[in-house]
Amino acid sequence: MSKEYIFENNLVNIGLMCGRIIKSWKLILLSGLIFLSLAFVFVKLYLKPIWMSSAIVSSPAYSQLSEIRTEVSPLTNIDPSTKILVSNYTSSKWLIEQFVQEYDKYDTKLEFIKNNKKLFGITDGPSENLQIKNALNKIDLQKNKNGKNTFELTASSYSPEVSYNILSDYINLVNSNVISKMAKNLNALVRNEKDILINKSENAYNRAYIILDELKERNNFALRLAKSAKVEYPKENLDEDDKKFAFAIGSRALEEKAKILNTTKSLNVFNSEISILKYNLKMVNDIKIRDKLDINVYDLVKSPSEPLTPEKNKALVIIILGAIFGLILGMVIAVFKNK
């Protein structure tokens, strides 16, 4: 069989197919319209418009953190070695980093979604876990490409109001979590400093007791010497070989001194460090860092708002593909129908 015959035969077959397709244009058009309608119905029923609320945040301003810095300032005054840690936990850079990490954290999103199932339209049942998994993608974060330390936060839903509520509530949750973390770190520093001061105070009191016991012992020796020498009242020019056990003030004064030493409770007289430590300990005890502070660990460049228009979806693509598939199917039916 020659190549010319095969070529001519193929042309004839193609011509016949085209003829069948042209004759069945109504069938092809009907098939296209049917699948176009089906695609349109699918889009209307199942492919809802997506509304996305967004916000842009950056590092918090220094003034926003003045309250917490003022609260912990006594700590750095008492112990300068804590200044670096305190500055780190209250720095704008550290806080925005923690905010971004917390916002994009899987566990944080999961907790928020499980506590707000109604907001995400999640229903109980076998598909609940799948619905929760899909909802995780509705909360997102992107770093802006403008070179600045700013981030775009987004939340999507099938309603503009719901997308705004999701974003606002989630931002508040993340902010609260970061504040709690900051407070936890600062409270740990406060507790550590308190333990150090308590330990120092105990040592200072022990030294004071040692000094007091030594004074009592010396006074007892001096009293015995004064009584032995029958020195009852102070003597100005009494020669004494041992200055440690001076009894020139007389036995009466020494007896009174013994009473004072045995009954005194003012140990700071014997160790002045006690007064300083007591004052510092009081300052540390007065530091009260609350987990719920009325501050933001971010600065809003663009506040969350209800979106005005929905995001582009695949509705048009699905409708066009439906129409094309219908036309192709109609052509196939036309060819085989008239064969």
Q: What's the short version?
A:
The chain is of the alpha+beta class.
Report on this model:
With 339 residues, the chain is an alpha+beta fold. Among the domains are: 73 residues, no CATH class; 84 residues, Helix Hairpins, CATH 1.10.287. Helix content is 64%, strand content 7%. It has twelve helices and four strands, in the order ααβααααααββαααβα. Strands 2-3-1-4 form a four-stranded antiparallel β-sheet, with helices on one face. β2 and β3 form a beta hairpin. The two termini are 24 Å apart. The N terminus is likely disordered.
Topology:
Elements: H1 3-23, H2 25-46, E1 51-58, H3 66-78, H4 83-89, H5 92-103, H6 106-115, H7 117-120, H8 128-136, E2 139-143, E3 150-157, H9 160-228, H10 251-263, H11 273-285, E4 299-302, H12 315-337
Antiparallel strand pairs: 1-3, 1-4, 2-3
Helix pairs in contact: 1-12, 2-12, 5-9, 9-10, 9-11
Number of distinct helices: 12
Roughly how many Å is the radius of gyration? 43 Å
CATH domain topology of one domain? Helix Hairpins
Task: Please state how the strands of the largest beta sheet are arranged side by side.
Answer: 2-3-1-4
Q: Helix share of residues?
A: 55-70%
First-to-last CA distance: 24 Å
* Shape summary: rod-shaped
